[in-house]
Design goal:
alpha+beta, 4-stranded antiparallel sheet, 23% strand
C-alpha cells in the first residue's frame, strides 16, 4: 500500500485507546496540558500494519504523523546509488512523520513494519486546527518536535564524527 495513501481504520475497531503512559513517554507530546492531550487522543486514528507493510513511502507528500502503539517499524532511505539503508527501528512511544509538520517537504524515508504493529495517526489538518484554536499548545508541540529533530541531528553528527566522515555543504545548499 502506498504510505499515507492507505485508509486507516477508525478508533472503534477494538484498538486500545491512546494510553496515558505511552503519551507520557512520547517526547513530542511532553508538557502538553491535559485538555490538549485529550483533544489529540480524540482526533487520533488507528492504523494496523502487517509485517512488511509500508506506512510512509519516501518521496510521497505528507499527510500526518504516527505514534507507535505496538510493534516495531524500520525507517529506511535510498542512497544515491539506489541501495536502501535502514536508519532506525521505532518501538512503542516513538513517533515518525513529525518532520513534515515543520518543513512541509515530501517524505524523506520509507517506514515499514518489522512485525505486526498498531499506530496512532495525527493528521496535519488536526494539527492545523490546534493552531487555530490554541496557539500556545501548538507552539509547545512545534517546540517539542524541534527538540526531537535536534536530538536526532546531534546523534547523526556523532555517528558521522565517529566514522571519520566530513560532509561538505551540510549546513547550506552547496553541493
Amino acid at each position: 500500500m502506498g504510505g499515507d495513501q492507505r485508509a486507516p481504520s477508525g478508533n472503534g475497531d477494538g484498538a486500545p485507546a491512546l494510553d496515558p503512559a505511552l503519551v507520557a513517554d512520547t517526547p513530542i507530546l511532553g508538557g502538553l496540558p491535559d485538555h490538549a492531550l485529550s483533544r489529540l487522543v480524540d482526533a487520533a486514528r488507528v492504523v494496523r500494519l502487517d509485517t512488511g507493510e509500508v506506512v510512509i513511502r519516501e518521496g510521497e507528500p505528507p499527510r500526518g504523523m504516527f505514534i507507535v502503539r505496538e510493534g516495531e517499524l524500520e525507517i529506511c532511505k535510498r542512497g544515491r546509488n539506489g541501495n536502501e539503508f535502514c536508519l532506525a527501528v521505532l518501538r512503542p512511544g516513538d513517533c515518525v512523520g513529525e518532520m513534515s509538520l515543520i518543513d512541509i517537504q515530501p517524505r524523506s524515508a520509507t517506514v515499514r513494519a518489522l512485525r505486526p504493529s498498531v499506530l496512532y495517526v495525527l493528521d496535519h489538518a488536526e494539527i492545523a486546527r490546534l493552531y487555530q484554536t490554541d496557539v500556545q499548545v501548538y507552539l509547545m508541540l512545534v517546540l517539542n518536535i524541534a527538540r526531537e529533530i535536534s536530538r536526532r541531528l546531534r546523534r547523526a553528527d556523532d555517528v558521522l564524527v565517529d566514522m571519520g566522515v566530513a560532509v561538505q555543504g551540510l549546513w547550506n545548499d552547496d553541493p
